[in-house]
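Notes continue from the previous slide.

Worked example: a multi-chain complex. Inputs as given:
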Amino acid sequence: MRRIAKIGRLPAWAILAVALVLTLFPFYWMVRTALTPAADLYSDSGALFPQNPTMVNFQRILGLTTQEEARAAGGSGAQIDFARYLLNSVVYSGLIATLQTFFCAMAGYAFARLRFPGRELVFGIMIAALMVPPIFTLLPNFVLVKSLDWVNTFAGMVAPSILMTPFAVFFLRQFFLSIPRDVEEAARLDGNGAWGVFWRIVLPMSRGPLITIGLTTTVWAWKDYLWPLLVGREEETRVLTVALGVFLQQSPNTRPDWTGLMAGSTLSVLPVLLLLVFLGRRLVQSLNFSGIK
Amino acid sequence: MRTMRTEERSQVAEPRDAGAPRRRRARPRDDRRAAWIFLIPAIAGFVIFYGYPTVRGFWYSLTDYNLLTDPAYVGGDNYAQLVRDPQFWHSLTVTGYYVLINIGSQMLLGLLLAALMHRLTRSVMLRAMLLLPWLVPNVTVGLLWIWLLDADLGFVNHLLKALGLGTVGFFVSPDWAMPTIAMVNTWAYTGYTALLLYAGMLQIPQHLYESAAIDGAGELRMFRSITLPMLRPVLALVLVVSLIGSFQIFDTVAVVAGGSGESSAIRVIYYFIYQQAFKYFHMGYASAAALTLALILGVLTVVQMRLLRASRSDLA
């Protein structure tokens, strides 16, 4: 595996190093700007380190300062409450990830193991939905949520995603098909019903794939923008991505409030950074498919 | 969403017992009742939020509908109008331009990074860091780069000035805006693409490289004669999946449009549909455009499914 001649390796490592710097530098610049007082923005704009580092940008977007203090620190004075948006984002992705994973596990198990007429047909129809691009169902779903008066409620925000996605059903079914039958048969003979086998035997055995699906769904929901923008724009349901978009447009003068915006951006990166630190190995290895088979 | 989920689609093991004889007992078990209970949430979700809206979307595309009054049937009028709408064609051209730059650069850079990692290191740490931009919301990615590329205070323009080059209004200039957005998304997705390709490369039998090295082949030769041909099915699959994702570019464009004002230079097809639906409330017209996009993506998806099957027989 390591057969590259010693000298040839240096430029190769150099390219990787450059890629790494290009990947990480924008995040450094984001944090650096967030720690810069707005008054220094102009004078500091080319400096690698803030001359007078401050936490005031975080404090003001989290609503920890008074309106006057916020305005003095470069804010527009508009109501801004990133603590709430952060919480909304966590609730949004948490609800979707847990419920979707659970319901799709139930469905995947039924398709993999339970015997009933029409099984392949129902499964086939569900999988066909993978072919429909999200934008196509998004318009009618918006009309539906609006007619239910669910706009700007968490119910409307999460409803289309919590019950199922075709992909998660497909993924979990494939996994359940691959686990040995014998254990389940034995549990059946011990007097367990379908639910008992699923709850006591199958779910605990499937922690890996369940976490993988839960994790990717969390990331997907965390990044989600268009649907929350349409359905959850108001304060009560506004998530971080929508809040950042609104914040950018609320700029007081011609120049956006960059120090505040970068503080808000940092808040949207921190949770995924934590995810990467604690679950990075699993996340990276979930891309490590055992061959496209 | 589609792009980010490819990996598991491939990670899944083959069904071992599909079609195998199931009859161990005299009478086959029938789990009908339990099964439908297990399926209630998924079927409800499917019918309400996938099946029904698909039918509705098709119906809307044949109507004049402004969200306030009931949809009025107009037959194929929306489609006829769409074909004659220069804005629609322009948005398709803009999208194509974006896809070309984005996918071209992303695949090449991803392949380069994957090949280097494959021959140099197995570090999980490195891969995790390269994955970071993909984990961050596209909105955040857009903001970071709008700031980095800001014409007056942006870091990149400071660099350009230091190098004696003039500053560029990356997101403001009509000529620069779309390529800039494409490259910003290349920045966000290259690590992810590289990791998928890298995973494909790990499947290539190591002894091929060992014997090639004994025969005196250099790294470039090995890449051309072993890595590329062996990776072909994975490469094709990743390409199509990335294409499907790339066609659906919206978030970054929306953020840029919100920041520096929207212009036709960056009005991609998703944004066109979004504006028709939620700015002008032409729901019927927007649905017709969405259906057209769905057909384009449908063709790509069929190609993807075929590749998925082809790659199975190739690497099995």
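Summary box: The mean pLDDT of chain B is 87. Residues 65 and 71 of chain B are 4 Å apart (CA to CA).
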